[in-house]
Amino acid sequence: MDGNGRWAQQRGLPRLMGHHEGANSIRECVEACQQAGVQYLTLYAFSLENWKRPRTEVKGLMGLLERFLRERTDEIAQKGICLRAIGRLQDLPEPCHKLLSEALRKTAENRGLTLILALSYGSRTEIVDAIKNIAEQAIDGKIQPDQINDQTVADHLYTKGVPDPDLLIRTSGEMRLSNFLLWQLSYTEIYVTQKLWPDFRAADLQRALQDYNTRHRRYGGI
Ligand code: FPP
After folding, report:
1. Is 30 close to ligand 1, i.e. is its CB under 6 Å away?
2. Which of 15, 46, 147, 179 has the fewest C-beta atoms under 10 angstroms from its C-beta?
3. pLDDT at residue 48, as a whole number
4. Which atom of ligand 1 is nearest to the CA of 69?
5. Which of 175, 123, 165, 183 is closest to 2 using CA atoms?
6. Distance between Cα 197 and ligand 1 center (Å)
7. Closest among 186, 103, 116 to 158, alpha carbons compared
8. Contact in structure between 46 and 119 (CB atoms under 8 Å)
């Protein structure tokens, strides 16, 4: 959800106002996904690297997350959305962690859109954690090294059971993956828009889906 800071700077506002407006884009995009029948939506809300930002911005973002969970969990639950989270969730401040656990529990049985929040998430760390886990199982004799395959790795990632994304939407014209779902995005179609995340609304999401529908996916074949 890139471009919040620039959106605010362009208006002479503090960066946090951009994140605040970005939270409104989340609501619109979630609704648009539900209407379009999208089954999984993953939002890169806070990366492991984002902890390096100034304390006030980190604090503000955690405050927004807390407010989002406090104010929107019931609405999310009522809409049949199943909330999931990926990342080092234990790094989150206690109030966020607690509200998140409650929200995950309240929505676990829902069968509508699965909304995945990537929080304190870093893909390399996710892969390293998976390797450690697989290695421990190999040492314990629970898994044979020559039996390790793509599925073994996928089953040890935070996204276990979630299909690989069909489409990656990158806002604000950025042309990099920024340590996001590196394993899972191997064959994902990429859509880059110049729009800043707070300006990216339902109509923009629909445009991205239309563009996706014109893609011919070959998965390395012809
Ligand atoms: C990147 O833009 C955005 C973030 C680091 C935070 C995204 C968070 C939200 C939209 C709201 C909070 C999340 C939830 C789930 C309520 P940037 O700050 O890097 O923008 P810039 O590239 O223009 O500086």
Report:
1. no
2. 147
3. 98
4. 16
5. 175
6. 8
7. 116
8. yes
**Residue 79 beta carbon below 6 angstroms from any ligand 1 atom:** no
| Confidence at residue 222, expressed as pLDDT on a 0 to 100 scale | 85
Cα(10) to ligand 1 centroid in Å equals 15
**Cβ 22 under 6 angstroms from ligand 1:** yes
Rounded to whole angstroms, the Cα distance separating 23 from 7 reads: 13
Indicate whether 108 pLDDT > 90. Answer: yes
User: Would you place residue 58 in the very low, low, confident or very high pLDDT band (cuts 50, 70, 90)?
Assistant: very high
How much is the pLDDT for 117? 98
Give per-residue pLDDT as tens, 116-168: 999 999 999 999 999 999 999 999 999 999 999 999 999 999 999 999 999 99
Residue 187's CB is within 10 A of a number of other CB atoms, namely 12
CB contact set of 66 (below 8 Å; sequence gap of 6+): 93, 95, 96, 99
Q: What are phi and psi of 114, to 5 degrees?
A: -95, 115
Query: What span, in angstroms and rounded, lies between the C-alpha atoms of 207 and 204?
Result: 5
**pLDDT, tens only, 25-48:** 999 999 999 999 999 999 999 999
